[in-house]
Amino acid sequence: MGKNNPRKQSSPEAKKQAAIWCAIAVIAVAVMMLMANPWKHQPATTAPQANSAAQTQSDAKHEAKAKKKGKAASTSDSLEQKARTMFTGDAEQISNDVRDLLNAPENSNVDTLSTLLYRHGRQDLAEATDLYDAIGQQKDIDTIRSLAREWYPQAMRAAIEARRSDLSDGLDNTAKSVTTIQQDNLENTQGCGDIKNAYETAKQLVDSKSDDYDALTKAQQDLTTATSGCATNLDPKDLEKVFGQPQGTLKEDKE
């Protein structure tokens, strides 16, 4: 039998190299284990922050919508509660009461309730069709009273939206008029100094989406009164500067 060859001892350099490879292998295994671990800790990223911001905006929008719906529901409930205390007379009295509501405000510089509803496409409410049909057919008083109490909140909700819309539509032009009056020092012209206050009141009601029909109607009356009063007392040149050229007129040709 031959003699066993003695094992060759590793040199210090070989040992060092083996240690390095061993360390690399350990690190690689650790990394693979970390990647395979479903419970590993995820580093923070900007994505959750973006999601959080988007969620905050979404929550704010939902809250605003909820408030708007809540306010509308509150207005509707209030009108319906008021209606339950109205129209307590006989058929003739109920007919007169509804007619008075439709013709108000009387002798005013703004649309009556019926005209307002007509102009905004609510002919059924402007004429209280179902109610007056029932009265004409001599239906029983309970039916007539019920129809009147159904009509009132429907008509007033539509009128509130219509009156507020009318105010809103004129605000931009009125703001320009107010600015021109101030720039040209026309506040002391009779009636012109009142436009600013009337405008600010109307704008506040529109911006807050007021559901106070009487307040909206008064604001429109005051703004119309101030505007017409100012226009009456301005000379033609200032009138055009403040309120613009009246519709349907043409400027004279300049030679």
Overview of this structure, please?
The protein has 255 residues and is mainly α. It has a domain of 156 residues. Helices cover 70% and strands 0% of the residues. The protein is built from ten helices and no strands. The radius of gyration is 39 Å and the shape is elongated.
Helix content: over 70%
Strand content: under 5%
The biggest beta sheet reads: none
**Shape, please?**
elongated
**Mean pLDDT, rounded to whole units?**
81
Structural class: mainly alpha
Q: How far is the first residue's CA from the last residue's CA? A: 135 Å
The run of helices and strands is HHHHHHHHHH
Radius of gyration: 39 Å
Keywords: Membrane, Transmembrane, Transmembrane helix
Transmembrane segments: 20-39
Biased composition (Polar residues): 43-58
Region (Disordered): 42-80
Give a short summary of the structure:
With 255 residues, this protein is mostly helical.
